[in-house]
Design goal:
Elements (H helix, E strand, L loop, with lengths): L34 E4 L6 H11 L4 E3 L3 E2 L14 E2 L2 H9 L3 E7 L2 E6 H9 L3 E4 L3 H8 L6 E6 L3 H11 L4 H18 L7 E4 L3 H21 L8
Parallel strand pairs: 1-7, 1-8, 2-7, 3-4, 8-9
Antiparallel strand pairs: 3-6, 5-6
This protein binds adenosine-5'-triphosphate.
């Protein structure tokens, strides 16, 4: 693997873009642009990301989600999740602090803008595996994400991959496949994404994905954004 390092001249900008957040921290908005990878279930997002992290172990990071569920044994606040009370999280959602939220088994979960900024402030590219609603929401923020859509060859192929993966019940499989056409329509609409990866052969798709990401990050580094690419 070619491994190279650009660290970069401009220090994290200090004061102008800070904001108090749900986590009670002040954060800088400077740093690499977040990278959104969107695509129907089974299209191969996790597979692409796993390869990317193996090639560049220091470049990327995942934001820490918020949840209203109680911590399980061994789980730490601000490590596994930001554990918060429901009224606090509801107020933050109403205040437009979240990119994406969902409710499972009576608990709220979500990705806050501040959590994404925290990864940026570390000089890492925050990876977001989000759905259409989240993409629409993040587009309305100042996070300026790179938006990539992972396009599978067909819904039949999605079904085949998901069955092979063996992760789904018949019901959850149906749900995923039913959602897929809407996601494909959104993903393939001109202007919604910066890059569409046609994920047919995984090796070809990964090369295209990797090349695009490296090109984008190199451009940012050349503009003085602190990007670690190695
Ligand atoms: N291009 C490909 N060709 C054949 N199989 C693939 C390809 N990409 C991924 N797969 C396989 O398809 C299955 C689904 O891939 P993966 O779990 O990466 O999808 P995903 O988009 O992350 O799904 P989800 O959104 O449900 O997490 C996996 O078993 C993976 O090994």
């Amino acid at each position: 693997m070619i491994s190279f390092l650009f660290i970069v001249n401009r220090a994290l900008s200090s004061s102008s873009n800070t904001a108090a957040t749900l986590t009670g921290k002040k954060m800088s908005a400077a740093g690499p642009r977040p990278l959104v990878l969107c695509g129907p279930s089974g299209s191969g997002k996790s597979t692409l990301l796993k390869r990317l992290f193996a090639d560049f172990p220091n470049t990327f990071g995942f934001s820490i989600s918020h949840t209203t569920r109680k911590p399980r044994q061994g789980e730490e606040h601000a490590v596994h999740y930001y554990f918060v009370e429901r009224p606090e999280m509801e107020a933050a959602i109403a205040g437009n602090e979240f990119i994406e939220t969902a409710e499972f088994s009576g608990n709220l979960y979500g990705t806050s803008k501040a959590a994404v900024r925290e990864i940026q402030a570390q000089g890492r590219v925050c990876i977001l595996d989000i759905e259409q609603k989240g993409v629409e929401q993040i587009r309305r923020t100042d996070l300026n994400p790179i938006l990539i859509f992972n396009n599978p060859p067909s819904i039949e192929e999605l079904e085949r991959r998901l069955r092979l993966r063996g992760s789904e019940t018949e019901e959850s499989l149906r749900k995923r496949l039913n959602a897929a056409q809407v996601e494909l329509d959104y993903g393939l609409t001109e202007g919604n994404f910066h890059k569409i990866i046609n994920n047919v052969d995984i090796d070809v798709a990964y090369q295209e994905f990797r090349d695009f990401v490296v090109k984008e990050l190199t451009e940012q580094a050349n503009q003085g954004v602190p990007v670690i690419l190695n």
